Amino acid sequence: MFKVLIMDESSSRNRMKSYEPGIGRLIAGIRQRIYNMVAKKLKDSDLDVGQFFFLHFILCHEGQTQEQIASSLLLDKATISKGVKRLVQLGYVTRKVNVRDKREYLIYPTDKALEQALEIDAIFSDVHQRLYKNLNKKQVEQLEMLLTRVYKNFE
């Protein structure tokens, strides 16, 4: 574990005290570093980081509804709706009416998205290699199980 030094404002002497970031701060820090890594790789692209993750999922899971995408990515439907709308505007995805339920749309990648699929997958793979670096398979499984348990605390 690492420690961060912070100013002790409760004392008039401005001395430093040790502070260990909690799980929430570590998760937020990891998320921020992932976003920064992806943003750097997308600097010449018309995609932003959020759209990148949506598009990667859509490339891997063609023909899903927005609700299915939201559930899989652990995001709310409104966020997915905005992201899909932007991907449609940029020409990366199309929305097709679900023939089984005309109230729903199925989301498909366009030729533009398919042309960039290898690059998108390479960026995604780089993120996961960095994320799991120095962890063995058992540690990754344990980490996923623990984070899932923490996530469920908020359902």
What does this protein look like?
With 155 residues, the chain is α+β, with helices and mostly antiparallel strands. It has a domain of 78 residues: Winged helix-like DNA-binding domain superfamily/Winged helix DNA-binding domain (Arc Repressor Mutant, subunit A, Orthogonal Bundle), CATH 1.10.10.10. It is built from seven helices and five strands; from the N terminus they run E-E-H-H-E-H-H-E-E-H-H-H. The strands form two sheets. The chain has a three-stranded antiparallel sheet. The protein is globular and about 50 Å long.
Keywords for this structure?
5 strands; alpha+beta; two-stranded antiparallel sheet; 3-stranded antiparallel β-sheet; 155 residues; 13% strand; Arc Repressor Mutant, subunit A
Q: Tell how many strands the DSSP assignment holds.
A: 5
The helicity comes to 55-70%
Q: What is the percentage of strand-forming residues?
A: 5-15%
Protein structure class:
alpha+beta
CATH class of the domain at 44-121 reads Mainly Alpha
How far the N terminus sits from the C terminus, by CA atoms, comes to 28 Å
If you compute it from the alpha carbons, what radius of gyration comes out, rounded to the nearest whole angstrom?
20 Å
Helices and strands, in order, run as EEHHEHHEEHHH
**Sheet with the most strands, sense and barrel status:** 3 strands, antiparallel
The low-confidence runs, each spanning 5 or more residues with pLDDT under 50, are none
- Main sheet strand line-up: 3-5-4
What would you give as the CATH superfamily of the domain at 44-121?
Answer: Winged helix-like DNA-binding domain superfamily/Winged helix DNA-binding domain
CATH topology-level fold name of the domain at 44-121 = Arc Repressor Mutant, subunit A
The count of helical stretches stands at 7
Give the averaged pLDDT, no decimals: 90
Shape: globular
In the CATH classification, which architecture of the domain at 44-121 applies?
Orthogonal Bundle
